[in-house]
Amino acid sequence: MFKNLITYRIGEGWTADAKLLAEQLAKETFLPCAPTQPLAVGWTPPRGIEHAPLVEVVDGHWLVKLKREQRLLPSSVVQERVDELAEHIEATTGRKPGKKAKKELKEQAQHELLPRAFTKTSATQVWIAPAQGLLFVDAGSSSRADEVVTLLIQASPGLSLQLVQTAESPAACMAAWLLDGVTPEGFQIERECELKGSDDEKPVVRYARHPLDIDEVRAHLTSGKMPTRLALSWKDRVAFTLTEGFAIKKISFLDLAFEGRSEASGDEAFDADMALATGELGGLIPALIEGLGGEHDFAAAGGAAPAPVALPANVPEEALSESPPW
After folding, report:
1. What is the 3-state secondary structure (H, E, C) of 114-135?
2. Segment (H or E) for 171
3. This prediction's pTM
4. In a 10 Å sphere around its CB, with 0-12 CB exposed, 13-18 middle and 19+ buried, how is residue 5 labelled?
5. Is 81 helix (H, G, I), strand (E, B) or coil?
6. pLDDT category, 302, cuts 50, 70, 90?
7. 3-state helix, strand, coil in the chain (%, to 5)
8. pLDDT tens digits for 95-137?
9. Would you say 56 and 62 are in contact if contact means Cβ atoms under 8 Å apart?
10. Which is deepest, 8, 176, 208, 259, by most CB within 10 Å?
11. What is the DSSP annotation of 258-285?
12. Which residues contact 174 (CB under 8 A, 6 or more apart)?
């Protein structure tokens, strides 16, 4: 159910009411892109069934989903149309369009071409654990998580979120685990990692499907390289990759996690999958935070907690490109 998780702490003062949140999200439900609209974003039923609840609740855990549709308009196609328009103006007036006119021509070209552009649809899941005061975004990048978090805060007044940061650096802890082979209880080092140097060239060494308890890895660490990613497993139930920024990636559930689970289909399968994922990860993540020295207390440290990145006021030009930044 989840592939990547970025973890947030829910601030105090928010009313954890699933019915109220569903009503708030209903004001910004997903609507497909209009013909000249480059991007559409909105909330959609996590179960994937029309008119189903916008907030699914299973065993005290909530799931919501943000859907986005984007029109793909390659910059080369836009430029080709701009050149055609500019040539026509020059042929009819005898003057080449200036910089300001070229900008207007680009806007005209985009407006003309958008209705014919292909669309790409994607969705991002959000898992809320009210009892633990935690929220998780299933996103592979911080920019995508920032977008979802910002829209969720806008939809639910009183909700505040800050990225969970651990008391000890994940990179330093991963280096120590690789050097001495001692991991927090329940965790085991697997066969993938990435090490990066800190000098000007920033050399990178990657190991895949390779034992890591070898002198070569330890030599890289003692020479100054630090882990940026490390594959781990937890109690032989969940495999994942931990990053230096405390993102959890490439989540997969191992055979032991499925023992005793009966076959299910339809709605029952959705509930069973959600119960399995939140149950297993609901134990793994607190254990991982504890293994990294616990959660950093910003108040005790006298510093301000990092704020989520706000969305731009206008859709960036990159949103119209063939390869968006996320």
Report:
1. HHHCEEEEEEEEEEEECCCCEE
2. helix 170-180
3. 0.83
4. buried
5. helix
6. low
7. 35, 25, 40
8. 888 888 888 888 888 888 888 889 999 999 999 999 999 999 9
9. yes
10. 8
11. HTTPPP--HHHHHHHHHHHHHHHHHHHH
12. 193, 226, 227, 230, 242, 244
Distance CA 116, CA 63 (A): 34
Q: What is the distance between the alpha carbons of residues 315 and 82, in angstroms, rounded to a whole number? A: 20
From the list 64, 61, 79, the residue with the least C-alpha distance to 24 is 64
Cα–Cα dist 94/71, whole Å: 35
Residues near 56 by beta carbon (within 8 Å), at least 6 away in sequence: 45, 46, 47, 62, 63, 64, 270, 274
Distance, CA of 70 to CA of 133 (rounded, Å): 33
The amino acid sitting at 306 is P
What string of DSSP letters covers 195-227? EE--STT--EEEESSS--SSHHHHHHHHTT-EE
